[in-house]
Each structure stands twice: as structure tokens, then as C-alpha cells.
Amino acid sequence: MVDSEQDLVFSLQCLQKRSARKRFRRSIFDEWPECAYCGRENPTTLDHVVPKARGGSTTRQNLVGCCGDCNITKAHQDVLEWWRAQTFWDLERETALFVWLSENHPVTQSKQLYLRDMLSCAPLLPNVA
Fold first, then answer.
1. Which of 20, 26, 36, 88 is the most buried (most CB within 10 A)?
2. What's the CA gap between 27 and 116, in Å, rounded?
3. Integer angstrom CA distances of residue 110 from 63, 120, 125
4. CATH code matching the domain that covers 17-124, chosen among 1.10.30, 2.40.420, 1.20.120, 1.25.40
């Protein structure tokens, strides 16, 4: 049965900005149940993989769940430069981040910047180029 226009309009949900923001954040935390960088469970902040200061966008695809410590220490630094200098850097997590961005990120400047940096380090990554 095809819904009438009235049925479709009736089914729409009106969200307050606050509720929409909570749903947006929750959808990212659901995808990242642990810090994207150090692996700590239940991240409490969102990090722009490509920082806004470097042209990154505030889109779901450029955000990952991360712990407060990682978010503060990374700040607006290049993610690979910062992350690979950390003792908790892990190839498996980096590959997961690469896959997240390459599969989910629209073709934007953020993606181009990140992928350029990732591909320049491709020898470290198994079969992801």
C-alpha cells in the first residue's frame, strides 16, 4: 500500500536542535565504542580527524569517538604525525580509521587531505591503497 502524502507528513518527526545534536553524536559513538586512537573504551569526546583549522569539516564522516586525553593532546595537529609518535599507535586502529574515511567520507577537501597523507604512508598499511 502506498502511503498518502498526509501519512508521510504525519510520520515526520520534529526534533529540537538539542535532540538532533544528541542523536548525531550518539550515531558516531555507536560506530566508535572505543577511542579511535588509543582504544580506551567508551570515548567521551568527538575528534575532527582532519582538524577544522586544516580545512576539515564538521560532518559525521570526519568525526570519530575519542577519549578526552587523545582529543586534547592531538588538538589541531595532523592526525598521522601526532598519532604515530604516540606509544599507543596501532596499525589495526589506523587501518580501521582509513577504511572509515575511505568508505564513508564524501569526496571533500578533508578526505583528499587525509587520504593523501595516508597513501604517502601506504607501505605501512596492508592492502588498503
1. 36
2. 27
3. 11, 16, 20
4. 1.10.30
The model's pLDDT over 67-117, given as tens digits with 9 standing for 90+, comes to: 999 999 999 998 999 999 999 999 999 988 888 887 765 555 555 666 666
- Residue 36 has φ and ψ, to the nearest 5°, of -60, -25
Condensed to tens digits (0 to 9), the pLDDT of residues 47-79 reads 999 899 988 888 888 899 999 999 999 999 989
Could you tell me which residues come within 8 angstroms of residue 6 by beta carbon, excluding any fewer than 6 positions away? none
